[in-house]
Amino acid sequence: MGNQLQFMKKTLPSAHQTGDSANQHLRGMLIVGVGVLAISFDAVLIRLAQTDGWNIAFWRGALIAFSLGLFLTFRHGWQLATAFREGRWTAFISAILFGITSLLFVLSIMHTRAANTVVILSAAPLFAALFTRLFLGEVVRLHTWAAIIVAVGGVVIVFYGSLGGDGLLGDVFAITAAGILGGNLTLLRHHRTIPRIPLVCVSGAVTALIALPFAEPLSLAPQSYWVLAVMGLVQMPTAMVLMAVGTRYLPAPEVSLFLLVEAVLGPAWVWVAVGEEPPGATFVGGFVIIATLTVHSWLGLRSMRWKTSG
Longest C-alpha distance within the chain, in Å? Predict the structure, then answer.
């Protein structure tokens, strides 16, 4: 009997351990929640900058690189060299892909409705699932294939709403960004040890360098510089750091659920601030995509919890 009690003590979690796990989960929810709230202002700040997309992309990238570079220096010492020595060419490729994604996001916002951009980009995790199957050979579950098919239908609805208007180019930028981001997520899934924040820091420099030949960064109005400073020095670095830290406490499907909040709040802030109402097709397509991703993330989270408890 004594041996059985000893075994149970070792195998069953104590109340203290359970409490610690619950506290860590709550901490993760708060951290990721604040990070997603911060990043949801991205689209409205791009609108309020009131300048050319290339100028926004340059200053956004340069200031993100500067602010995250300072963060890494004061928090960990100069980690960039370590991160890229660890990942070698993979880290450089990933940073370039992040930089291109950021540039396409800005250009998409400038050429279509903000709601279209955010809704289409939210399909990136499903691109990642597809690429994971194609390039890494991992098994994709039936509910993920179903989610991919339904979400593609939602994207088609959003594109249909832009036909005959001037938003089609922006939608193309957004779907390209979603595909590149999905590919990058697949790449990072295969190389999990590469530090993420240094990648985002370098990606900001990549965005700025690509945009520089097409930009006139010193020709902006004073108001634009203030908005870009808030975006590049405060909003984006805060969001990226909090979301990177939050993934230590929450499983990936649960983080994905939080990211869906951006797809709702982002267009809402633009609507309130500048009166940009999403078209009907975006409402319908957005509902299809967000509902699909919500169910898919919930099923993934339930499966992960079942495995953990089993």
Answer: 81
